[in-house]
Amino acid sequence: MYLLFIKASMRAESETLSVVVVPSSKAIGKRSRHELTEIELWRGRILEIRIPTSRTRSRNDNQANEQPKDVWVIVAWYYSPLTYKTMGVPTDQRGYRKGDFGKRELIFTPTHTDPVHIDTLNGTEAILDYDEKDYDQDDIPEEAFYKRSVYDTVHQIWEDGPPTRECICKQTFKVYDDQEMHYCPRAGCHKWYHEACLEKHDFMIRERALRKFEDEWEATFDEEWLGDIKEEVDALPRGNSIEIPKRLESYARRPIMKGGKHGVNGNAAATFRARWIIHQARKEVPIPDKYKDFCKYKRRSKSNGGAQAKERVRRSTMVHFEPYKQGPFLYCFICPSCKKAI
Ligand SMILES: [Zn+2]
Ligand SMILES: [Zn+2]
Asked: N or C: which end of the chain has fewer CB within 10 A?
């Protein structure tokens, strides 16, 4: 063995580093490397860096200030929808379909590792984590690669994932490849539905007064499901009033949506919080002083900052909501399962 493991401290730093590898042109067909698209590049996470020991280096390599020539990295691969077949993942038997994943979505396979020479590395890239069950998930920029599933290639089991199929059409949510979806937040439902599917199957009701829908939207809060929001609100400093501000009302009294122009998160995070504060105010619990800030913004660690660096980011990416109107009627979608306004 002529490879040396790097020191543990260095290894810890490199564990989250994802790199892009240029595959040999043969592996992806007859085209030359220059025609590779961004999606065709291979991506892996560096687990270890190995450099030659001084004993096995040539004399030239040992001279002062010279970088060792044979540095290898051990990489655990991310599979892309394009590499399912070539990398030997069975498609149908493993609980997913190829179409369950988005165009820029990757599956992390910690068990499929290879040594890769550093000369074949093409650069670094952040592969973002996407947890679709986390309504406080950070937004995913449109051009970013992301992963939400982890597959163990040795035992052929999913450690995480595959993505949940939603809606009556039983499709998964694809980040930025997808259309708008509506959420039913009621206990026993917790499902997303495509707006187009609801429309197609006529899951709609109409009313003359918007207030009727607004009342329904505001009233849904699954206390068991959203225990963390209850705790957060409990910890906020209270004001003196139980009078519900118009602005807080406007956060709560709208449908929960994501996808399309509403982004990965939509408005679930802000809307849930507003609904809970109102729910409590109606039981005479005073409204927190900083309800506006609490509903709309969160603090998260800065990706390029130091250990203490935090930034304030918007929870809600929903731009605006206007109910569909025809003649004297306003239209609202209903949940295909519980048949109530969503
Ligand atoms: Zn659908
Ligand atoms: Zn429902």
From this structure: N
